[in-house]
Amino acid sequence: xxxxxxxxxxxxxxxxxxxxxxxxxxxxxxxxxxxxxxxxxxxxxxxxxxxxxxxxxxxxxxxxxxxxxxxxxxxxxxxxxxxxxxxxxxxxxxxxxxxxxxxxxxxxxxxxxxxxxxxxxxxxxxxxxxxxxxxxxxxxxxxxxxxxxxxxxxxxxxxxxxxxxxxxxxxxxxxxxxxxxxxxxxxxxxxxxxxxxxxxxxxxxxxxxxxxxxxxxxxxxxxxxxxxxxxxxxxxxxxxxxxxxxxxxxxxxxxxxxxxxxxxxxxxxxxxxxxxxxxxxxxxxxxxxxxxxxxxxxxxxxxxxxxxxxxxxxxxxxxxxxxxxxxxxxxxxxxxxxxxxxxxxxxxxxxxxxxxxxxxxxxxxxxxxxxxxxxxxxxxxxxxxxxxxxxxxxxxxxxxxxxxxxxxxxxxxxxxxxxxxxxxxxxxxxxxxxxxxxxxxxxxxxxxxxxxxxxxxxxxxxxxxxxxxxxxxxxxxxxxxxxxxxxxxxxxxxxxxxxxxxxxxxxxxxxxxxxxxxxxxxxxxxxxxxxxxxxxxxxxxxxxxxxxxxxxxxxxxxxxxxxxxxxxxxxxxxxxxxxxxxxxxxxxxxxxxxxxxxxxxxxxxxxxxxxxxxxxxxxxxxxxxxxxxxxxxxxxxxxxxxxxxxxxxxxxxxxxxxxxxxxxxxxxxxxxxxxxxxxxxxxxxxxxxxxxxxxxxxxxxxxxxxxxxxxxxxxxxxxxxxxxxxxxxxxxxxxxxxxxxxxxxxxxxxxxxxxxxxxxxxxxxxxxxxxxxxxxxxxxxxxxxxxxxxxxxxxxxxxxxxxxxxxxxxxxxxxxxxxxxxxxxxxxxxxxxxxxxxxxxxxxxxxxxxxxxxxxxxxxxxxxxxxxxxxxxxxxxxxxxxxxxxxxxxxxxxxxxxxxxxxxxxxxxxxxxxxxxxxxxxxxxxx
Length: 927
Prior knowledge:
The protein is mainly beta.
């Protein structure tokens, strides 16, 4: 025989444990069934299944009333409630939605001993259900009464029950009900469902229909007085479903679903009515009923809202009621600005700054408003700003509760204008309730300093706008350093005929970083800056990158091994002359250019007072009339890292340099040559600038050394601000090899010859291409041709091979005839004071110094260069001295001196307009 062990355990109740056999248990069950068949008025145990009495000849066609009381356990605490699940139900018929014909059911919640009860007027349920429905009591005492005037097989019911504690009914009491004992309000004494809520805050006040989330009782008239500490009280739905008289089943075959409606005409039976104030004498916001999603929020104009809930005396066992939460509109959304009238606003950048917020907010109308309502918002920035507006939340619904019906399109609309008024020629976007799609988190950006927003409603509404939106707006500095160009919002162009120098930085308008480029076209957000000059004005572009401020980011921390190809935030600088496509970014193997990634060597921290300024990251001088700088930011993190990030991602300065006074900028490879400043021929064709910056690039023949000799250097004063000259070498292009001003001009006379170690560029500079060997000479100073003069000679030297002992192979010296095998072509004269400097014989005694002088302390007191020794030149004169070349050089020097004197006289005569200048001469000079 099998024994069955039965446990019954209820908290705070006695636990009964009974051991019976299976046969005994079956006998007891059959005996209980027999009793249930005999009568239906009984006390029901918790967890017991109950069904309607069986149809017998004795009860068929006769009236029947069944009453069921639920047995309460001895010692059951008051916070226990009953959950009754009706699995089947067909009792009576609902007529005219107000009367039960042929039968009904009553649910009596509470009794004379409980604090609340509906026993005086419990109301009637009738009709039929297709799915199980649940009633969840407000008390621990419930009585259910069924009545049929004519009991047939078309009258039946079945239900079961169970007891639960409050914390188990989460949808009603929320989380931690012990912390919020008055979350459902204070019950008015002597009532079943009248409640008062004080100082409501988010999640502290639940406004619910009785028995929520189950079926609410019939014949109710409940009132809820709601209060918050701040104005603009907000009543909003807690979940997605609102079901007050959502279905009326006169017949199970016709049980229509009623959408949420407003107005007394649409809600004659069950409804809630919301008043804008403390009681029913306040203005009515709306009357609502039906089933579906309730309007998102209802906002009162004060700290109080009064809600009335009414259910008809008779109805179906279908409607589950409502659950509202109460709070106040955060900050009551009196957005920073000036209000004109009921809902017209001027929202300026100044008002936003005063509020201390980075973004302003305005909302759609959430409460009732009359027909033909128009609300406007003028978003007004400063002249250099642009305006952005976007909608974090936007829903477009049909107009559910119009005050005045409207059958056409656009009963309600929202229009954005790229102007400060409703200019129909400058509409950005129009949203209508009938045909538009909402656009959430999409930026609408103006081209000027204002956006005008207008909302119009032809119908009015009880429940708020059908265009529900939460609008954010802000202002962005759209100042450009150059001229906007191209289709990008951040490409700029800098031209020499507008300004000779200036500065630039990453875009001030950080909306640029929210642009999502097409993944098939670009992988990064790029801003391209083009520098363009006219050789007649300036020959070169000097670009200095002063700082880089790219953020540390998981996508931006990879080592910059190949800057061109790595997916990193970076700066790329190149010249189009060396590119196949001038608009393309250079890549390895396609020519020159610089690529700067974010590495510790490229970051420059700001220095405080008393600290020397930090050195620039890079200075680059163009060789052509065009130069490009491009900032590339990886799109994967651009918005999260740099949107509304005020610090610059890079800072740079530019200057168009090497004007006509400087003469040629590129000095091609040659055995010897000279640099002269100023170029007096340019004085008659250009206006003198206040300052001048000359950059000469001396190309050196591969395999040769070069020596520079300053023939003449003169400055206005000894102050470096009145002029300085510097020589840069490829081995260290960031620092000058030598820099002189008026006080140390003699240092140029001690300049050595530059060999392979000086002329070989760094490994970084040779990535992707082999740059030529160059020596760069820069002069910066004021424009004073009469007092500043520079004349520098240069001479290339052949590199002689060396013997095993390190000495020079002088046996390789040959004359100017074609070289024999194993000799150095064109090298015939070894300069005596160096062990490697060798020049062609044709440069000896040509009137210019071509050999380096004796080093200091060598004991040599010669006042002339070795290649210009009088004895050597006398010998060459008697044998093979080239008078023609000497004559040409001497004549050139004489002509240059005469030209200098003439130009100086013309310059000062013209500038001073002195009496020595004739009218005709001044006219010619002016022309």
